[in-house]
Amino acid sequence: MKSEKSEFDLHRFLPFLMHHASEKVSLGFRDIYRDRYRMTRSEWRVLATLGQYGRLTATEIVTHTGLHKTKVSRAVFSIEQRRWLRRAQNENDRRVHRLELTSQGQSAFQSLCEAGIAYDKKVRDFLGDADFKRLSDLLTKLNDL
Which stretches make up the HTH marR-type domain (predicted)? Predict the structure, then answer.
């Protein structure tokens, strides 16, 4: 039952607004990587992280992406099945593998980067340069909270 005196408005509540805006923006880009490469969000994030940072362990990918280790593990397996990723065993600790993109993985990453730049431009055009920059700055600041 809604209280008449309540100042709380779910649709103005920052976490609610951010979640819905994030989903809307994310789903717009998801259509690109899903349709072009039949990738999941986790696979895209792992591919993009390896493309951005180079050779990493699965634990380092977890740190960069915020994904749960089981999602990273499944995404790594799937990307490896596509031959977009290769593993190199650590000589000092055989339980640890360094992961890196193959040339085919790099090619997919570059293609999706170009699509990402175009998608970012679409959002920038919708918001306008000043609002896009302000939003980006505010989100960066919130991520430091």
Answer: 11-144
